[in-house]
């Protein structure tokens, strides 16, 4: 009985042990299964995260691709516009070059015509016999042609002549015939120092300045006198033309030197004599000014450097 009981106890113990290990093995398997499940879920989560990152990356790539395509389109448009602007610029440059070439040809033609007109007018003046009637009128007409030809000309005048101041005044008096006009009194006075002074200038052009000033005085002085004074003032010779004519207001002192300006339309002329007189004087390094303080007519001062 005792042996049977012992065997029975051992058998139960063996079964309990086997059941324990079986249960432990099942628990371990369950825990291992749970751990595997957790690991699997973690892996799944990681894969889903990677998949999300991939989708985001793909979306970014798509966005970049669209932006790149848009950039390419914009670049192509800019390149097309640049090419269009280049073509327009080239056409404009060609037009400008053509215009400049035409302008140069036209300017050369105008210069040549001006030279021919000047040569013709100067030839007329040289052939005039001032001892004959109407010689002064012919000279004045030639001088008017020269004035019209010389308006707004800025070409430098070369000094080529050694002459006395009286050479200039004598020739200007002869060309205008002012000393032979019977309706006014002409006075010509030269300071002793001025008579002995030599100038290095362009004599024909200096004469033209004085002729224009004398013509202007004759035109606007219907009675009274015109006076030509030649003085030395510092390093300049002064040719002063005074008249007892209508005079010029201080407000018009500069206006009279504007081209084609006539303050009185009742008198003949193109209104450019004083313009050309000042222009030539300045190109001879001198000047022509109106003395605005002079009363009882007009007083112009023509200066030339000694």
From TrEMBL:
GO molecular function (one): protein histidine kinase activity
PANTHER family (UniProt xref): HISTIDINE KINASE 1, TWO-COMPONENT HISTIDINE KINASE
Enzyme's top EC category: transferase
Transmembrane segments: none
Kinase in keyword set: yes
Catalytic activity field: ATP + protein L-histidine = ADP + protein N-phospho-L-histidine
Entry protein name: histidine kinase
Coiled-coil region list: 23-126
EC assignment: 2.7.13.3
Pfam families associated with the record: HATPase_c
Span of domain Histidine kinase: 87-306
UniProt keyword annotation of Transferase present: yes
Gene Ontology terms: biological process: phosphorelay signal transduction system
SMART domains to which the protein is assigned, alphabetical: HATPase_c
Keywords of the record: Coiled coil, Kinase, Transferase, Two-component regulatory system
